[in-house]
Design goal:
Number of domains: 4
Number of helices: 4
Structural class: alpha+beta
Radius of gyration: 53 Å
Shape: elongated
Helix content: 25-40%
Distance between the termini: 73 Å
Order of helices and strands: HEEEEEEEHHEEEEEEEEEHEEEEEE
């Protein structure tokens, strides 16, 4: 029986050892990196502390919340037209007034003295006008008399001249006598023409005087009418019926021209004035509508006026009530209004949430269908209102996203819900 031959173990060639070692090292490095990367980009969060919302498709309307203040439909300010001293007050602030009611009376001594002086001047000017008119009529009559008389004498001397001219031609009158008679006739004819011309100039001058006096009297009468109107303005009356909201006057108090005396509110209707962020100034125009809730009902408003002046980053609008009246609304009341900026359209929507403050709407965590984790996805949002964001890209209806705050998530790629 022969002895068994010992089998010599084969050793791995160095080349194989190097190859397998390299592969193993690569696996270790890749595994390490994967584990490290997963640890860095994954965060465990409590499911109860996040808000999961479903992406939907439905009607969307862009609107902004604004706060409006209820004001009277119309406010009339009472101002002192010419100024004066408060002589008597007939009504107090808070009273209901009717159009034409006397509210207070002012006195103005200077205005009264000016009025009396003007009346005296008008009386004097009117007397002068009457005297000048009478003189004008006398001059007309005198001119007419003198013309009649001149025509009579001229006619007589003309007949005399014509008779003597025949006698002269027949040789019964000397040339000297005829020439004397002819000279007298020519003189009387010229003298009559000059007299009439002078009298017509005097008449025209008198007529101009009368016209100037008439204009002067009319001007003084117009000034007197204005003064009387100003005197009437010393009695302050209610221009409309309404509520005497304020009265800034005390008996004996001196008021300058243009100084505010009070205001009357027309309480037959109301309007709403609201400040709006200047960011929307190009999109808010007359006719835009809004709604507010009051006493379990929704009421409509319409922008009736836009004030383009921007103050402290805001501009203002006036809105009027549309449709049914909101019973119980009072002056000074605050209304929370939803002002519509666009018409209703169909859009992909996600509810508003705290995530927007971190992401700016550029990305969001979308839930895996398993519901165990969420991953980061790039999106693009469009318009918004207080309830929803409009989704332009990155999400489909039915998908679920985390809409609560991302403040503590950093830049994690993946959230694991526990």
């Amino acid at each position: 029986m022969g002895m068994d031959k010992a089998i010599e173990k084969k050793k791995w060639p160095p080349k194989r050892i190097i190859t397998y070692s390299s592969i193993g090292l690569f696996i270790l490095v890749v595994g390490y990196l994967l584990i490290f990367q997963a640890g860095r980009s994954t965060l465990n969060v409590e499911k109860e502390r996040v808000t999961i919302s479903t992406v939907t498709k439905g009607p969307f309307q862009e609107f902004i919340p604004i706060i409006g203040n209820v004001l009277p439909h119309r406010t009339i300010y009472l101002d002192s037209v010419i100024g004066g001293s408060v002589e008597k007050i007939y009504l107090e602030a808070g009273a209901q007034v009717k159009q034409g009611d006397i509210i207070l009376m002012l006195s103005n001594t200077n205005l009264l003295m000016t009025l009396l002086n003007n009346e005296a001047q008008i009386n004097r000017a009117s007397n002068d006008l009457r005297t000048t008119r009478l003189q004008l009529e006398r001059n007309r009559l005198e001119l007419k008399r003198q013309r009649t008389e001149g025509d009579y004498f001229l006619k007589r001397i003309k007949r005399r001249f014509e008779r003597n001219e025949i006698i002269f031609k027949d040789g019964y009158l000397s040339k000297q006598d005829f020439d004397d008679l002819k000279d007298e006739y020519e003189f009387q004819k010229k003298n009559r023409e000059l007299t009439i011309e002078s009298q017509e100039k005097d008449l025209k001058f008198s007529e101009e005087q009368v016209k100037q006096l008439e204009v002067s009297v009319k001007q003084m009468e117009a000034s007197l009418t204005l003064l009387k109107a100003q005197l009437e303005n010393l009695t302050v009356k209610a221009p409309i019926s309404g509520h005497l909201t304020s009265l800034l006057a005390e008996v004996g108090q001196s008021k300058a021209p243009g100084e505010r005396l009070g205001q009357i509110d027309d309480v037959t209707g109301f309007k709403v004035r609201a400040p709006i962020d200047e960011h929307y100034i190009a999109r808010v125009e007359v006719g835009k509508t809004g709604q507010f809730d009051f006493s379990d009902n929704t009421f409509d408003l319409k922008v009736s006026k836009v004030y383009p002046e921007v103050r402290n980053g805001q501009f203002e609008v006036d809105m009027e009530f549309v449709g049914k009246n909101a019973e119980g609304i009072r002056r000074g009341q605050t209304l929370h209004i939803r002002l519509q900026l666009s018409d209703i359209s169909v859009a992909i929507l996600i509810p508003r949430g705290g995530f927007y403050q971190t992401t700016g709407g550029n990305w969001i965590y979308i839930m895996d269908p398993s519901g165990k984790y969420a991953i980061k996805r790039q999106i693009r949002l469009g318009r918004q209102n207080p309830e929803f964001f409009e989704v332009l890209e990155g999400l489909k209806p039915g998908e679920q996203v985390i809409t609560s705050s991302y403040e503590n998530y950093g830049d994690m790629e993946r959230l694991v819900l526990k």
